[in-house]
């Protein structure tokens, strides 16, 4: 049985998905609203973290 590896996104990919600027994405990371990690010099954001951020924003808006 194999499990699917989590999808990891780069900052530019997250920028495209959320239609946010680079500084906005880094603000979300700094404020711990968007989970991420670095591997060497590369920052990666799990796709599930982006989905969770969207879910949280929708709950806040309602």
TrEMBL record:
It comes from the Bacteria. InterPro entries: HTH_17, SinI_DNA-bd. Residues 8-57 form the Helix-turn-helix domain. This is Helix-turn-helix domain-containing protein.
């Amino acid at each position: 049985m194999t499990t699917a590896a989590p999808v990891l996104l780069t900052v530019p990919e997250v920028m495209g998905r959320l239609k946010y600027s680079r500084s906005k994405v880094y603000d979300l990371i700094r404020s711990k609203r968007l989970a991420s990690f670095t591997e060497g010099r590369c920052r990666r954001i799990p796709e599930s973290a982006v989905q969770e951020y969207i879910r949280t924003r929708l709950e806040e808006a309602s």
